[in-house]
Recover the amino acids of this structure.
């Protein structure tokens, strides 16, 4: 496992192999007991943000992100960036490229906040702007994500 310095403080686009790896992990984790992960959504000044809390020991896989975003992490996490896993400690603000399907493992209770500029008028519209897999988002499958 590498430190954050090895990814130049940015999350790169992933290769097809890296995305495929995460899809395989996703299929395996769907067979395990699921953790209730709530999503907090905010719109402000043309920015959409979504925050999740990950309890320690939790694994999540994200939707395929099709646009550049910024990701803020707080806690101790391992993130698979396609080809390698890196550990993020403390508070990190990371420019994140398009074409990512990340997998995260929380070593401690952690928060993830992703945000991007948008003209969306609803959560559903913003979700559809950042992924073509919006129907797979927990915020779509759970009752009333945190507002």
């Amino acid at each position: 496992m590498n430190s954050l310095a090895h990814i130049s403080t940015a999350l790169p686009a992933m290769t097809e192999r890296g995305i495929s790896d995460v899809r395989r992990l996703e299929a395996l984790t769907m067979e395990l007991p699921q953790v209730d992960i709530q999503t907090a959504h905010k719109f402000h000044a043309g920015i959409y943000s979504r925050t999740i809390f990950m309890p320690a020991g939790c694994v999540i896989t994200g939707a395929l992100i099709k646009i550049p975003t910024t990701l803020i992490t707080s806690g101790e996490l391992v993130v698979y960036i396609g080809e390698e896993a890196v550990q993020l400690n403390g508070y990190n603000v990371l420019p994140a490229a398009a074409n990512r399907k990340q997998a995260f493992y929380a070593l401690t209770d952690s928060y993830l906040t992703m945000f991007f500029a948008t003209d969306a008028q609803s959560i559903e519209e913003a979700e559809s702007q950042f992924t073509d897999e919006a129907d797979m988002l927990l915020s779509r499958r759970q009752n009333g994500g945190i507002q």
